[in-house]
Structure formats: C-alpha cells, structure tokens
Specification:
This protein is mostly helical. The chain has helices spanning 2-32, 40-62, 78-112, 126-156, and strands at residues 116-117, 123-124. It is 71% helix and 2% strand. A two-stranded antiparallel ribbon has the order 1-2. The chain is elongated.
C-alpha cells in the first residue's frame, strides 16, 4: 500500500508540474505571440487536476497531512478517540466506496460506448472517471485499514494504528 501511495504521489507531483508548465506556456503564448494553446484548459481540467487531487489523497492521509479539526479529541480518553477514529475512517471509506462504484460504472459506460469530449481535440471521456476510481480505491483501502487497525487496537490494547498526536495525553 505504501509503495502504491508513493507512486501515486509521484504521479500527482508530475501532474502538478505539468499544470504549472502548461499554464505558464499558455499565458506566455497568449500574450507574447497571441496564440494560446487551445487544448490546455481541457487537459488540465479533465485529466491533470483530477489526477493531482485524487492520486495525492491516500498518501496525504497516511502522512497525517490532511486537514483535521481537533476540538474535542485532545480532551477524550484514548479509547474514545480510537473509537471515533475507527468510526470516522469507516464512514469516510463508505463514501469513497460509493464514489468508486459510481465512477467505475460511468467510466465503463463511457469506455464501452467510446464516448468523447468534443473540444479542439476529441478527448476520451472515460479517463477522468478512471482516474477518480484509482484514487478513490486507494483512499478507500487506506481508510478501511485505519478503521480495522483502530478497532483492533481498541479491542486488544496493542498499537496497530497510531492515534493522531493531538489525541495523546
């Protein structure tokens, strides 16, 4: 899982660099030679931004670099914090599993019908949905692992998954 998350993070970083390079080149071409790149915003909006966002999610969560609101957790006993972590991870995993289901069906339907997005270039319409599926599967697996780890830690008293730092006393 960690290896796949590192690969996903690398792809997300490459996508970010590509977005910056394409936007810079498009702006330069637009203002210097009055010839913007006609496909730039399609590529960025349909492919690169979803990849940038969804492929970085799981690695961000694994490294605890996500946004977390810790108003009550620092005042909870460790067992209660673990229970909330398990519940929150499981509930969030359920949402991402639903996203996987919806986008996988959509990607397959678009692939099966050879759907294209008509613009200056005919872009395959299934690829953005497939990108969402890959990212959502990865974050779902990470969240399910965290939920199970917190439950096992709660039941056995052993540390299978760390409690976020703010919950430790």
């Amino acid at each position: 899982m960690n290896r796949f998350e590192r690969i996903s993070r690398f792809v997300a970083v490459v996508c970010l660099m590509a977005v910056m390079l394409i936007v810079f080149t498009d702006v330069a071409a637009r203002y210097l030679i009055h010839a913007p790149i006609p496909w730039s915003y399609d590529l960025i909006g349909m492919y690169l931004m979803p990849a940038l966002f969804y492929l970085a999610l799981s690695d961000t969560l694994a490294a605890h670099h996500h946004v977390a609101v810790d108003l009550l957790r620092p005042h909870m006993p460790r067992w209660l914090a673990r229970g909330f972590e398990a519940f929150g991870s499981a509930a969030t995993a359920a949402v991402f599993v639903l996203i996987v289901w919806i986008y996988a069906q959509s990607a397959w339907e678009k692939f099966d019908t050879d759907a294209m997005v008509l613009s200056s270039i005919q872009w395959p319409a299934w690829i953005p949905d497939a990108i969402v599926v890959v990212g959502a599967v990865t974050i779902s697996l990470r969240l399910i692992g965290r939920a199970v780890g917190h439950l096992l830690s709660l039941v056995t008293g052993r540390e299978f998954v760390e409690v976020p730092v703010a919950a430790e006393h």
